[in-house]
Structure to design on (195 residues):
């Protein structure tokens, strides 16, 4: 028998009930002894800070409303239990008719986990605070700036970019940045010879 690996799957839930479904699943893992088959259960949420009437308000935003990410070994029993958890409407990537779903591609889940500050894969970087970098993708693609701060735990850098004539700090993932090398050119003035 080939070894079955733990992989990530996307579970569909009723929108707004993601955290309740997560609690239900975690409770089932405990009561049914599924710790060897179900591992991390994640609601992809991000904190946003807004200013209302001059006061700082922190709001939690769900990046994927109606979805949970479940790291599991897809056995018949684990699949059955997750599918039949209250609030679960199914798995994404299942063709129906009793077919098991396909796991999420590793690059996709790594990108989501990095954004949430949960990635286990560390990205090696060749830049440090004060270095000049270029943003490789996203809305700021090809914009250059200076690294102001590095957060190795969450693998993000605060990059000072100039937008509309103002320096703006922007948080960018390590994988979205490349160091820009400057070639130092010095103009040497040749002495003038008299003829």
């Amino acid at each position: 028998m080939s070894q079955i690996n733990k992989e990530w799957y996307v579970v569909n839930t009723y929108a707004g009930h993601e955290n309740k479904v997560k609690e239900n699943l975690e409770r089932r893992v405990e009561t049914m002894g599924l710790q060897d088959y179900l591992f991390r259960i994640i609601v992809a949420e991000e904190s946003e800070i807004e200013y209302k009437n001059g006061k700082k308000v922190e709001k939690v935003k769900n990046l994927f409303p109606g979805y949970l990410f479940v790291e599991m070994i897809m056995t018949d029993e684990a699949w059955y239990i997750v599918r039949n958890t209250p609030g679960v409407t199914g798995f994404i990537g299942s063709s129906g008719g009793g077919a098991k779903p396909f796991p999420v591609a590793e690059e996709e889940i790594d990108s989501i986990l990095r954004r949430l500050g949960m990635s286990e894969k560390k990205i090696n970087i060749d830049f440090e605070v004060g270095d000049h970098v270029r943003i490789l993708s996203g809305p700021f693609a090809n914009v250059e700036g200076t690294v102001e701060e590095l957060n190795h735990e969450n693998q993000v850098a605060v990059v000072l970019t100039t937008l509309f004539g103002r320096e703006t700090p922007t948080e960018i993932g390590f994988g979205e940045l490349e160091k820009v090398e400057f070639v130092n050119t010095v103009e040497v003035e040749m002495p003038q010879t008299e003829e």
In short: The two ends are 92 Å apart (CA to CA). Helices lie at 18-31, 76-83, 106-115. Residues 18-31 form the longest helix (14 residues). The first strand starts at residue 7 and ends at 13.
